[in-house]
Amino acid sequence: MEQTVTEQKIDFAAARTHMVESQLRPNRVHDPRVLAAMKSLPRERFLPEALAAFAYIDEDVPLGHGRVLTEPLVLARLVQLAEPRPGERALVVGAGTGYGAAVLAACGPAVTALEEDERLLAIARAALPALAPAVTLAEGKLAAGWPAGAPWHIVLIEGAVLQIPSAAIEQLSRESGRIVTVLAERDAAGRPVAVSRAVIGRPSLGGLAIQNAFDCATPMLPSLVPPPAFTF
């Protein structure tokens, strides 16, 4: 069978190793499970074939309609921040093509990947059974979460949000739950600022206690952007 141009020019296994050694290890990714998962999982399989060559760049890969495959370093640090443990139940909101859910599942939790974009679901349906068969793929509105699996020990929102959806908070385990995401902010004109904050939130008596973790420039999840408020 004739090789494609991409297959002829790119050694994806070498690219994965380079990603781990040059992007992740030097930048505070130290969880051996995260490093091992991202060194073994073929990230290119979670992209449309035409975009496979961009799988290991240190940037988000645009997937259209405002969606991206999250930058490797940001994803690795978010999964690490969640401190996943075997036997826990985890929900990935905005799972896209399923790569982040696969990385998280490799760290031990039973993962449900929630997505609403049919284009991205098609890629996830093709990739996950072979590469992360333990991940359960769920189709539904991101803002609604997935109450069938609640309470969740981990909710990973894979994309930036202006505010954490109330459903995600309500479906979180009150004893040991944590939500990991990127909180975006707006400037005085109401436009999202370029740099946002990765955070971890845990239930507390006063609501969700938010702790800042690191800065990043992750795009917002379009369907979780609230409509603009009317002014008079």
Record the strand order, biggest sheet: 5-4-3-6-7-8-9
Q: How many individual β-strands? A: 9
Report the radius of gyration as a whole number of Å: 17 Å
Any idea what the CATH architecture is?
A: 3-Layer(aba) Sandwich
Task: Look at the structure and give the CATH class.
Answer: Alpha Beta
State the shape: globular
Share of helix, binned: 25-40%
Order of helices and strands: HHHEEHEHEHEEHEEE
Instruction: Tally the helices.
Output: 7
Rounded to the nearest angstrom, the distance between the terminal CA atoms is: 65 Å
Domain count: the total is 1
- Which structural class is indicated by helix and strand composition? alpha/beta
Question: How would you describe this protein?
Answer:
- The protein has 232 residues and is of the alpha/beta class.
- It has one domain (5-224): Rossmann fold (3-Layer(aba) Sandwich), CATH 3.40.50.
- The protein is built from seven helices and nine strands, in the order H-H-H-E-E-H-E-H-E-H-E-E-H-E-E-E.
- The chain has a seven-stranded mixed β-sheet, covered by helices on one side. It has a two-stranded antiparallel ribbon with strand order 1-2.
- Helix 2 packs antiparallel against helix 3.
- The N and C termini lie far apart (65 Å).
- Mean pLDDT is 93; it is low at 1-7.
